[in-house]
User: Which sequence fits this backbone?
């Protein structure tokens, strides 16, 4: 783009000029696998759609622009994007420091796949800079931050974590810093501006926004990191199809409208649930009682639309609750216009061993609410009625349950 524009303008225009052939104002779906070339040995912009596709190129340019980066890379899923980062940056013997309560799929990728090939991982409380500093070794190549975290909504001070990771690196290159920005989105959090080297998204979530497309992305400003990611993207081929890219481009255009509304509804819902007699604890950084509320206020422009809720009665209460809900389908994923309820212990974090879940603080009575765009009164009433209907189903103590922060 020839000028510097604000977020909503960039989301609608970056990488998406009118089609030069027809004048279409939406980027076409280039449903092709290959492209005719003019001569032998040439270097055309497009040769094969695993390597590059015009619809994907538009998405990648737009993703880079909204995150304030220079280079964007789209992948077939969020985990494909995570895998590309690990493949592009790491070798046997390298070490990664990562947030401990991260997405279960990343935990599985780290511990069940890359650990087998000699990559070592330290999963720590990244909200504590001292733990970050003490975990870093001479072999540490990557600091992987997920903030807010999944599913406990812990907020890592990105600047402080980066500084801590470099505090003992005299004579040794600093680790590359990645921030998973899926929960906050580029509307509410700007990791590259806070010093991160890479930003990762499951574009399946808020960027897609309608639970109808799977995707992932990595954005950077660094030319060397971009070259590594581009090589892995082409070499391994985990790329999205053009129809998926088209849907993600459409989602980007309304991203800020949706997430602002998501966050406003979630904040009101979290306030009500915090005072509900059948709720043991609410995890939401927008609440003043959240241990990282002040960091979230400083680092984010809003608090997101995911709420963790510890129910009185544990997993038995969750099992009893689900059939009574009308507006909260039991489903994995998040970030869509329809609200969803997830039970991390048996769903998104089932790959995490029970003892590890207990260490982190993911209880069996924890549910994760992905707050959609329905009316907040209807969403709360649905939960309230279901909680009332199941109040007698499980014997629970009268005092509020103590849950690790």
Assistant:
């Amino acid at each position: 783009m020839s000028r510097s524009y604000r977020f909503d303008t960039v989301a609608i225009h970056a990488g998406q000029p009118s089609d030069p052939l027809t004048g279409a104002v939406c980027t076409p779906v280039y449903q092709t696998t290959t492209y005719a070339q003019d001569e032998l040995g040439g270097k055309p912009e497009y040769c094969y759609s695993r390597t590059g596709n015009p619809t994907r190129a538009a998405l990648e340019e737009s993703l880079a622009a909204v995150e304030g980066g220079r280079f964007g890379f789209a992948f077939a899923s969020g985990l494909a994007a995570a895998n590309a980062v690990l493949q592009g940056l790491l070798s046997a013997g390298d070490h990664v420091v990562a947030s401990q309560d991260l997405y279960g799929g990343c935990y599985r990728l780290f511990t069940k796949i890359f650990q087998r090939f000699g990559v070592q991982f330290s999963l720590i409380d990244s909200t504590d800079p001292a733990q970050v500093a003490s975990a870093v070794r001479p072999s540490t190549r990557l600091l992987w931050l997920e903030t807010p975290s999944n599913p406990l909504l812990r907020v890592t001070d990105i600047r402080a974590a980066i500084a801590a990771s470099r505090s003992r690196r005299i004579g040794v290159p600093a680790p590359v810093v990645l921030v998973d920005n899926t929960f906050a989105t580029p509307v509410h959090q700007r990791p590259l501006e806070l010093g991160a080297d890479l930003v990762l998204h499951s574009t399946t979530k808020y960027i897609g926004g309608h639970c109808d497309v799977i995707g992932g992305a990595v954005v950077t400003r660094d030319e060397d990191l971009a070259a590594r990611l581009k090589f892995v993207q082409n070499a391994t081929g985990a790329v999205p199809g053009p129809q998926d890219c088209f849907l993600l481009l459409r989602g980007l255009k309304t991203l800020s409208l949706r997430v602002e509304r998501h966050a406003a509804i979630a904040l009101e819902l979290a306030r009500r649930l915090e005072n509900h007699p059948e709720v043991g604890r609410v995890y939401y950084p927008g609440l003043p009682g959240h241990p990282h509320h002040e960091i979230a206020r400083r680092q984010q422009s809003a608090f997101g639309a995911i709420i963790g809720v510890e129910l009185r009665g544990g997993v038995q209460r969750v099992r009893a609750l689900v059939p009574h809900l009308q507006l909260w389908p039991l489903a994995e994923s998040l970030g869509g216009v329809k609200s969803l309820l997830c039970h991390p212990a048996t769903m998104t974090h089932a790959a995490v061993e029970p003892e590890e879940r207990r260490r982190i603080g993911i209880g069996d009575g924890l549910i994760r609410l992905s707050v959609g765009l329905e009316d907040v009164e209807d969403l709360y009433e649905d939960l309230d009625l279901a909680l009332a209907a199941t109040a007698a189903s499980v014997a629970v103590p009268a005092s509020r349950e103590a849950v690790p922060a």
Summary: Residues 398-405 have pLDDT under 50 and may be disordered. Residues 133 and 167 are 7 Å apart (CA to CA). Residues 255-389 form a domain with the Aspartate Aminotransferase, domain 1 fold (CATH 3.90.1150.10). The longest helix spans residues 255-274.
